[in-house]
Amino acid sequence: MALTREKGCLSCTSVLWCITFLGCGVNYMIRSNINIAIVSMVKKRSSDGSAVVSECFHSDINITRNYILNESLPQVEPTDNNNELRFDWDEHEQNVVLGAFFWFYWAAQLPGGMMGRHYGTKKVFGISNLMISVTTLLIPLFASLDYRVLVALRIFQGICGGFCWPSLTYMISRWIPTNERGKFMSAIMGSSVGAALTFPLCGMIIHFFNWQAVFYVTGTIGIIWFIGWWLLVYDNPADHPRISESELKHIQNGIGDSVSEKKLPIPWCKILTSWPLLANIMLAWGCIWGMFTLLTQAPTYFRNVHGWSVQKVGFFSGLPHVCRMILAISVGHLCDYLLSSGKLTVTGVRRVAGFIMNTLQGIFMLGLAFSGCNSIMATICLTAALAMSGAEPNGALATYIDLSPNFSSVLMGIGNMVCVTPGFLSAALVGVLTYKNQSSDQWKKVFLISAGILLVPGLIHILTSSSKVQEWNFPKSMAKEMKEGVSEKDVEAQQRLTSDHETEDHQDKEEETKS
Predict the structure, then answer these.
(1) How many angstroms separate the Cα of 464 from the Cα of each of 145, 279, 348, 420?
(2) How far does CA 300 lie from the centroid of its chain?
(3) Strand partners of residue 42
């Protein structure tokens, strides 16, 4: 049955959103499943008997010494099954296994964007997710050989997973008009839903079966997703055999000539010296620093400073993901409305999203820093701060496509290569500041530094950013480098883009005059 509105079914664009949403969820499920499975993979180790009770500890909270000393991962008690294989890995070996996925994850970002541009999103995103799903099935075998063998497998998974995200922009730039991009970019928030569902799903699997089943089930889910992706997804709407003429015409009219069908030479010098791109990368870097700090450290902070139970920590570790998803969808609809109604230009809309994802997140981070022992205020500020990062798809991520639809995957690859660094830099900073000193004062320093990292690029973005299509989206040197020269269609497209720039400049000046 054709997937068209005329026949009462979902449009091809809606199907694309759904399967992209699921693909992002699968990606995060695969990368985080071991975070909970490792609790049952390792043997219990005896503690040294020492513990430090938080200054915010209250006697009405039931907290034991063993609870304080446990790792910050969600706790799942292993079943008493003598036949179940467990490993005598110490804390260092466990953290090496957990972190190995990200060791070379950054190195695949730019190649992933370039491969997406050359081979298409269908192949790069699909096969990358397939590879990490298939290799997940091998984790029980590799773990039984040696933890270092498992580390090597996790490194390989990280490299494969690094190709996924930058390749998405190639397909989005060809399927989604600018004034509808906000709603579609919320599909990337499937990652938040995937992360939020992974802990309870894997916890139930371990409870009813064993830790090995976690990898067999999640790996199989990834393979099933790939089959649907391969059958239903096409890089270009014109190539889709089930798309209706009305939907195809709507997409083509909405995108216009900003995307070239030719393989254009990449203007590396202009890309790397583009201030709008640099400002956007700084914005994204600040947002991801704040987001990673809260996502990674929230369980440790609430457990050691506020003395929460493991169950309470687990619940509130998943709640921000849900709030983040809700805000992403809401901001997406708001941005699309502001664009389609003509109330704001593309630049204005992206500045609004940037204000939410960095400035508001930074303000709530300041609230968290000064919350002290007030656990209610701390919970509200932390959840709100993480929710604000949900505007990222409509801010920094959408801007990569706005600046250059032809080279969006390359821009995102460059941006992601830089923006994955907070994943380990933030953890290192927290480790230095809180080493043997889990006090609210030390955590206050962590949150104040993070707030500054959020607010400074947020202010720079509001004052200086631009989301206009850049001139180098259609390089002028193309005529010299290609034998047949620039076609009349490309010349006309460049003229239209120039006209659009002038119109947006005029609108920006009017907005500034009004303000």
Answers:
(1) 54, 8, 11, 24
(2) 22
(3) 87
Three-class secondary structure assignment of 456-487: HHHHHHHHHCCCCCCHHHCCCCHHHHCCCCCC
Task: Determine the Cα–Cα distance for residues 219 and 226; give it in Å rounded to an integer.
Answer: 11
Neighbouring C-beta atoms of residue 132, cutoff 10 Å: 25
Q: What distance, in Å, lies between the first and last C-alpha atoms of the chain?
A: 52
What is the model's pTM? 0.69
Radius of gyration for the alpha carbons in the chain, expressed in angstroms and rounded: 24
The tokens 């720039």 sit on which residue?
501
Q: What are phi and psi of 82, to 5 degrees?
A: -65, -20
CB 382 within 8 A of CB 499: no
The residue ranking higher by pLDDT, 186 or 338, is: 338
Query: Tell me, what's the pLDDT at 316?
Result: 65
| b (16+ CB within 10 A) / e for 442-458 | bbbebbebbbebbbebb
Q: How many CB atoms lie within 10 A of CB 509?
A: 10
Instruction: Quickly tell me which residue has 């509105």 as its tokens.
Output: 5
CA dist., res. 111 & res. 160, Å (int):
11
> From residue 392, how far is each of 57, 76, 512 by CA, in Å?
36, 32, 24
Cα dihedral 284, 285, 290, 294 sign: positive
Strand-pair partners of 87: 42
Q: How many CB atoms lie within 10 A of CB 152?
A: 12
Rounded CA-CA distance 113/107 in Å is 11
Q: Measuring CA to CA, how many Å separate 442 from each of 69, 72, 304, 372, 427?
A: 19, 18, 12, 11, 14
pLDDT tens track for 178-211: 778 777 877 887 887 887 787 778 878 887 888 8
**Among the listed residues 421, 423, 416, the one whose alpha carbon sits nearest the alpha carbon of residue 400:** 416
Q: In 325-351, which positions are buried (b, 16+ CB within 10 angstroms) versus exposed (e)?
A: bebbbbbbebbbebbeeeebbbbbbbb
Distance CA 154, CA 160 (A): 10
Residue 373's nearest CA partner among 469, 433, 313, 440 is 440
Write out the DSSP string of 333-347: HHHHHHHHTTSS-HH
Q: What is the pLDDT of residue 155?
A: 92
**Looking at the chain, how many residues does it have?**
515
- Which domains does the chain carry? 12-44+90-238 (1.20.1250.20), 272-515 (1.20.1250.20)
